[in-house]
Design brief:
Layout (H helix, E strand, L loop, with lengths): L2 E6 H5 L7 H8 L9 H5 L8 H8 L12 E4 L5 H14 L4 E2 L1 H4 L3 H12 L1 E2 L4 E2 L1 H25 L2 E6 L6 E3 L2 E4 L2 H13 L23 E2 L1 H5 L6 H7 L2
Parallel strand pairs: 1-6, 2-3, 2-6
Antiparallel strand pairs: 4-5, 7-8, 8-9
Helix pairs in contact: 2-5, 4-8, 7-8, 8-9
C-alpha cells in the first residue's frame, strides 16, 4: 500500500553529516547512462513506435532484477542534490531502495529529440514541423506519465521534498507548484494513499514570479501527507 509523506530541504540537509562522499559516489554510480539501445525503438523497421516497449525500456518502473523500489522521492529538478542525499541516507541507514528519476531514467527531452529529429525535422526549412512536434510531445509525455504512475504505485512509500523551487507560491494555507510533473506526482501520491486524517503543515514565505506561468494548487493534497523531520525519518523505517 502506497503511503505518502512530505519533508523539506532544511530537514534533508541535516542528514548531510551522516553521509560521506564515498556513500554518495556508491549510490550515484547506479545512475544509468542514456540508453544507446533507444535508437532501434525510435526507428523501428515497420515504422510504428511501440509505446509500451519504449516506456519499459527508457522509463523502467522497477529494478533490473524485477524487484520494486521501496521509496519514491518527488522533488524539483533544482533540488536534485537534496533528493540524492535523502536517497543515499535512506539506503545506507534504513536499507530501503529509493527511486530518484535521475538515477534510473533517461531524459524525456533527449527522447523527444531523438524522435523529433527523425520524424519532425524539415530539412528544407531547417526547422521542426509544429503539428508533428505537438503530436510526438503528447505521446512522450503520456508514456512518461504512465511510467510515473507505475513507479509510484509499486513503491511502499512516497516522499515529497518541499522547497521554494518545488512549491514557490505560498500564502496562508495555500501552496502552488509551477511544475506540471510535480503536480502530477503529488496527485498520484494522494490518490494512491490510504485515507486518513493529517495535521496541518508549517508555512514558508510567499515568492512572486515575473513571467507568464501556469500554477497548480496542491495545498489540499500536501495537507494529507504527514511531515517528516529527522526524528521521524529515524523511526519510520525499521
Amino acid at each position: 500500500m502506497n503511503i505518502a509523506f512530505r519533508t523539506n530541504t532544511d530537514v534533508v540537509k541535516q542528514l548531510a553529516g551522516m553521509v560521506t562522499k564515498n556513500d554518495m559516489n556508491s549510490i550515484l554510480c547506479k545512475k544509468l547512462q542514456f540508453k544507446k539501445s533507444i535508437r532501434p525503438l525510435v526507428i523501428p523497421e515497420d515504422g510504428i513506435i511501440k509505446g509500451d516497449t519504449l516506456k519499459d525500456s527508457y522509463f523502467p518502473s522497477n529494478h533490473f532484477d524485477g524487484s520494486n523500489y521501496d521509496v519514491f522521492i518527488s522533488h524539483s529538478h533544482n533540488n536534485e542534490a537534496e533528493a540524492n542525499l535523502l536517497a543515499v541516507w535512506l539506503e545506507k541507514y534504513k536499507n530501503v531502495s529509493c527511486f530518484v528519476d535521475s538515477f534510473a531514467w533517461g531524459s524525456a527531452d533527449q527522447l523527444l529529440r531523438e524522435i523529433d529529429d527523425k520524424y519532425c525535422y524539415q530539412k528544407h526549412k531547417k526547422t521542426y514541423n509544429y503539428y508533428k512536434r505537438n503530436f510526438t510531445t503528447s505521446h512522450v509525455h503520456a508514456i512518461l506519465s504512465m511510467a510515473l504512475l507505475d513507479t509510484i504505485q509499486r513503491c511502499k512509500y512516497c516522499i515529497f521534498i518541499e522547497s521554494s523551487e518545488s512549491v514557490p507560491l505560498r500564502s496562508k494555507l495555500k501552496k502552488e507548484t509551477l511544475s506540471p510533473w510535480l503536480y502530477e506526482e503529488i496527485k498520484f501520491m494522494q490518490l494512491l494513499q490510504p485515507r486518513r486524517e493529517m495535521g496541518m503543515f508549517s508555512e514558508g514565505l510567499e515568492k512572486a514570479i515575473d513571467s507568464c506561468k501556469i500554477s497548480y494548487n496542491v495545498s489540499s493534497e500536501l495537507n494529507e501527507f504527514p511531515f517528516l523531520d529527522v526524528n521521524c525519518f529515524n523511526s519510520l523505517f525499521h
